[in-house]
Each structure stands twice: as structure tokens, then as C-alpha cells.
Design goal:
Blueprint: H1 3-16, H2 39-69, H3 73-76, H4 80-110, H5 116-135, E1 143-145, E2 152-154, H6 156-179, H7 189-214, H8 220-227, H9 229-254, H10 262-273, H11 278-285, H12 291-304, H13 309-320, H14 329-348, H15 357-380, H16 392-417, H17 434-465
Helix pairs in contact: 1-10, 2-4, 2-5, 2-17, 4-5, 4-6, 4-7, 4-15, 5-6, 6-7, 7-9, 7-10, 9-12, 9-13, 9-15, 10-13, 11-12, 14-15, 14-16, 15-16, 16-17
């Protein structure tokens, strides 16, 4: 762990022992931000709707993906030709659109009411881009390029959808930088965490646009890999910061806010964001798209993420504090989120070669973020004027989704150990041994269970969001 991380753990321990009423987070005051009525709540509702609809589109495509790679079924339904195009849009909807949409939910919920026209323009453009993206695989010329982070279809409709969505996201991030500035700076840790997430988003978008302007055209697969390399790596810091925001918000709302001081939590967020300073430095020091550029960003992931360790530790302590708390959908999501995120982190250090251990790693990590956002969605529903998420389905949904993804990830990791390659389907997987078939069978079974869990989340949300509370 980097020295600053060790120093911050000691700082956190010291601050947690303080008993100052000016800095103590009490259950009454709570660390959960209050959501203002009017523009903040209205924009948050709109972005939540967009995120849920993106998950619906992603889930439909996920069914095709799982069937096309499951032994036995893949021979009955010849979906190989659609597999890659569906994979592209599935990834973009479930990662890029869903994560950005829920990030916007957080920014709108904790932010002020200013710049309303900018906010509504952003969500409108993002919704239009998402709609066009969702139907693009079914139009002619949907040739996939399976690059990392934001895979693309070589198709005018898809590129138009991507640019429109990027324009909406840019307006939203710009507004978030202005409206989420915490006051006092160290006195609102979750608002500070949301603001730092917006800083990461801004740097990521700037990296995308810079690379687009500066990277020369090369062979298509390599071009798009290089184009999204810097911005994609930077986005991981946005996701991680906002995931912890969601964890701490859930803990505070369920009834066990962290016992650390506001100042200590704020400093931990600042330390976790320190590696973002390297992003503009890399772009200024080496040409975008060059080998050193890509190597520096790879090292940024290796050396930068340990700065999150004290903040993750705070999340662990918050989760431990929830033991004994009555069952709650948000608590279920917190437990499942941490389990999958931790598994994804461990698998990241086990990657050797180009095989399905790589998607096992990022599925674990990204699903950990997704589950945190699902839990925070359950928390926010009544605060945004919707009915609360109630009933056994809401309580068990995170566990069903998390268990399915756990089996899915373990199946991929198992198969990767036996050499199954990534980004292939059908006979191209070359499943010749029993362990390979068992692993990919686990992948298929887990994927189907996860689809059921995702569908449960959509049903719970649609049920709650279809009925507004009076007032």
C-alpha cells in the first residue's frame, strides 16, 4: 500500500476517536445528504428512469449473449452473428449508460438547483443517444469492434448515438462540477465524494476528446482501443469513488452511519482522488496513443487504486456496523456489492494472458458498483417522491443478482484457467475438455440467474416508480 494510504489509516483511526460535537456524525444528523425539491429531485428522477430503461435494454441483449455461449443451447440457436453486435451494446448500456445515468442521479440529488436548463438539456440528449444505441445492433452494417471500455459498432447510427450521449453527459458533468461543490469543503463528505466523482468524469471526457483529436488513424481495432484507453482508465476512479459514496449513504440511511468524523471521511475521499492528478500529466508529457501513454495508464491503475484502500476500509467498517440491523433491500445490496467488488479485485491480480479471467475480473468489479447503485436506488426512491422498495422481492433481489453474478464470474475465472479465450462464442470457444465445459456451463447458469436478478430490480423499481407519493 502506498505510504499516503498508511498515513491516512492512522489519521482515520485518530479522527475516529475524537468526540467533538462539531465534527461527529450522529444518527440524528446523519451523513446522508438532504435532497432539495424542485430541479434537483426532478433531474434525479429523470436520470433514474433513464438508468432503469438502459438496464432493461441491456438485459434483453444479455439473454442473447448467455444463450450464444452456453454449451448445448448455442447449437440450437445460431446467434453467433448477432453475438458481437449485441455484446457491444450490452456493455455500453450496462456500463457506460447505466453508470453515467446513476452518477447523474447522485450529482443531481446532492447538488443545488442552479443551471436547470443545462441539466434538462443533458438528460434529454443522453436519453436520445441511449434510445438510438439500443436499436443500433438490429440495423444493417452493425460491424462490431470489441475494444475495451467502450466497444463500438462501425455504423453511422451507433456513432451518432455515442456522440449525442457524450454531449448530454458533458453538459451533466459540467453542471455537476458547479452545483456539487461542498460547503464547508471538509464538512460534507458524501457531497465531496460526489464532487470528486464529477472531477474524474470531467477528466475522463476530456481524455476521450483529446485522444479523438490527437490519435492518428490506424487499424480499427487498435485505433478504438487507444482512443478510449486513457478515458476508460480514468472512469474507473469515478465508479470507485461513487460506489463508496453509495455504501456510506446506504449505511447512514439504514441507521448506522460511520462513527468517523466528517473531516476524516472527507480527507479519505481526497486521498482516494489524488491519482487523478496524473491524468492531465500523462497527456501533457507523452503523445496520446503512444506506447508510453498506454503503459502509464496501466501503471496508474496498478499504483493509483491502492490510494482507495483507506476509503474501502471505511466501507468495510460501515458494513460491519450493519450487523444486527433489520433486513433491508439496501443492506442486502451493500453486502452483495462488497462481496463482488472484492472478488473482482482479487481476480485482477490473477490475470495471465488473454482469456476469460479478464471479463471475470471486470464483471466482479463492475457488478460491485452496480449493486451499490441498486442499493442506493432503493434508498433514494421515497426521497424522490416514489413509493419505497418493499416486499420480499426487493429484499432478495440483490442476493439473487449477486449470487448469479458470483457463479458467472467464478465460471469465467475457472474457464480462463483452462485457456478459454475471451470475446468469442459458439464453436469458436473450442470447448474441448470437461473442465472448460463445466466452467462455461457455470458461466451460463450464473448469467441466467443474474438476468433474473436484474429483472427483479427492474420490476421493483418500475412498481415503485409508477406510483408517486402525494406532496
Amino acid at each position: 500500500m502506498p505510504l499516503p494510504g498508511l498515513i491516512l489509516i492512522r489519521f482515520f483511526a485518530r479522527e475516529a476517536a475524537l468526540d467533538s460535537p462539531q465534527t461527529r456524525v450522529s444518527p440524528a444528523a446523519s451523513a446522508a445528504p438532504a435532497i432539495a425539491s424542485g430541479t434537483p429531485a426532478g433531474l434525479a428522477r429523470a436520470w433514474l428512469w433513464l438508468g432503469v430503461l438502459a438496464l432493461i435494454g441491456s438485459g434483453v441483449l444479455a439473454v442473447l449473449l448467455v444463450l450464444s455461449r452456453t454449451p448445448g443451447i448455442q447449437d440450437v440457436f445460431p446467434l453467433k452473428d448477432l453475438f458481437r453486435a449485441a455484446l457491444v451494446v450490452h456493455v455500453d448500456l450496462s456500463v457506460a449508460v447505466w453508470f453515467m445515468a446513476f452518477a447523474a442521479v447522485i450529482w443531481c440529488a446532492v447538488g443545488g438547483s442552479g443551471l436547470a436548463s443545462l441539466g434538462w438539456s443533458g438528460v434529454g440528449l443522453a436519453a436520445l443517444g441511449t434510445a438510438l444505441m439500443s436499436v443500433s445492433p438490429f440495423f444493417p452494417g452493425a460491424e462490431p469492434v470489441l475494444n475495451n471500455y467502450i466497444p463500438v459498432l462501425r455504423q453511422p447510427l451507433f456513432f451518432a448515438s455515442l456522440w449525442i450521449f457524450a454531449a448530454g453527459a458533458s453538459l451533466t458533468v459540467l453542471r455537476a462540477l458547479i452545483t456539487t461543490w461542498p460547503r464547508p469543503f471538509l464538512g460534507e463528505p458524501l457531497r465531496l465524494g460526489a464532487f470528486l466523482g464529477a472531477v474524474a468524469a470531467f477528466l475522463s471526457l476530456a481524455a476521450f476528446f483529446w485522444s479523438w483529436a490527437m490519435v492518428p488513424w490506424i487499424e480499427e481495432t487498435h485505433y478504438y482501443e487507444v482512443l478510449f484507453w486513457g478515458g476508460g482508465h480514468t472512469l474507473q476512479f469515478q465508479h470507485a469513488l461513487l460506489m463508496v459514496v453509495a455504501w456510506l449513504w446506504i449505511a447512514a440511511q439504514v441507521g448506522r452511519p460511520t462513527m468517523a468524523s466528517l473531516r476524516a471521511v472527507s480527507v479519505l475521499f481526497l486521498v482516494a482522488a489524488v491519482p487523478l492528478l496524473a491524468v492531465p500529466a500523462i497527456y501533457l508529457l507523452v503523445p496520446a496513443g503512444s506506447l508510453p501513454h498506454m503503459e502509464f495508464f496501466a501503471k496508474l491503475m496498478l499504483w493509483g487504486h491502492p490510494y482507495m484502500a483507506p476509503l474501502i476500509l471505511l466501507g468495510v467498517l460501515s458494513l460491519w456496523g450493519l450487523r444486527g440491523v433489520p433486513a433491508d433491500p439496501a443492506k442486502s445490496a451493500f453486502v452483495a456489492s462488497f462481496t463482488l467488488f472484492a472478488l473482482g479485485g482479487v481476480l485482477g491480480y490473477m490475470i495471465q494472458g488473454v482469456n476469460v479471467v479478464i471479463p471475470a475480473h471486470y464483471h466482479g468489479s463492475t457488478v460491485g458498483v452496480t449493486l451499490a447503485f441498486m442499493g442506493l436506488a432503493y434508498v433514494l426512491l421515497p426521497h424522490l417522491g416514489f413509493q419505497p422498495a418493499a416486499g420480499r422481492m426487493a429484499l432478495w433481489q440483490p442476493y439473487v443478482y449477486g449470487f448469479g453474478q458470483l457463479v458467472h464470474v467464478l465460471g469465467l475465472a475457472w474457464s480462463g484457467g483452462y485457456g478459454v479465450q475471451r470475446k468469442v462464442a459458439g464453436a469458436e470457444q473450442l470447448l474441448t475438455t470437461l473442465p472448460q465445459k463445466i466452467g462455461m456451463g457455470m458461466m451460463g447458469l450464473g448469467g441466467l440467474i443474474a438476468i433474473i436478478g436484474g429483472l427483479m430490480f427492474v420490476v421493483v423499481c418500475l412498481k415503485a416508480m409508477s406510483r408517486r407519493t402525494p406532496g
